[in-house]
Amino acid sequence: MHGFVEAEQHVAGVDLAELEPLTVLLVSTWHSLYRIVVVGGREVLVQGGPFFSDLTRAHLDGASAGGRALKAGWIGVGHLMALSISGQVILTSPVVAVATEGRGMPTVH
After folding, report:
1. pTM of this prediction?
2. Beta strand residue intervals within 6-94, DSSP E
3. Which of 19, 25, 30, 109 is deepest in the core (most CB within 10 A)?
4. Residue 107 to residue 26: CA distance in whole angstroms
5. What DSSP string runs through 75-104?
């Protein structure tokens, strides 16, 4: 088990706790593109994919391996993104890339 936890620490991704409010992330999954605006903590505004046609307030639970959060408030490449809206948990397809939107070229994580 210790080896699994250690391996997880080396997966590319981003921790919301390290981002300033109003940071905009572009999260590409196997099937969709999401635009995520960090509100503060794990609170976000999300748009994209089949569930979020409009900018929607949500709680980013974290990276998941199919139902169980592996790391709270974190988006990890290769993992599902778990978002909560009004008590309902939405799981995305696996994350392929995370970029920070800004002036010029996005920064890939």
Report:
1. 0.81
2. 13-15, 24-29, 33-40, 43-48, 52-64, 69-72, 74-76, 80-85, 88-91
3. 25
4. 10
5. EETTSEEEEEETTEEEEPSPEEEEEEE-SS
Kindly state the tokens that stand for 11: 């997966």
Q: Which residue has the tokens 């999300």?
A: 46
Q: Report the alpha-carbon distance of residue 65 to residue 82 in Å, rounded.
A: 9
Per-residue pLDDT tens for 46-100? 999 999 999 999 999 999 887 565 688 999 999 999 999 998 989 999 999 999 8
Give the largest Cα separation in the chain, rounded: 42
- H or E element that contains 7: helix 2-8
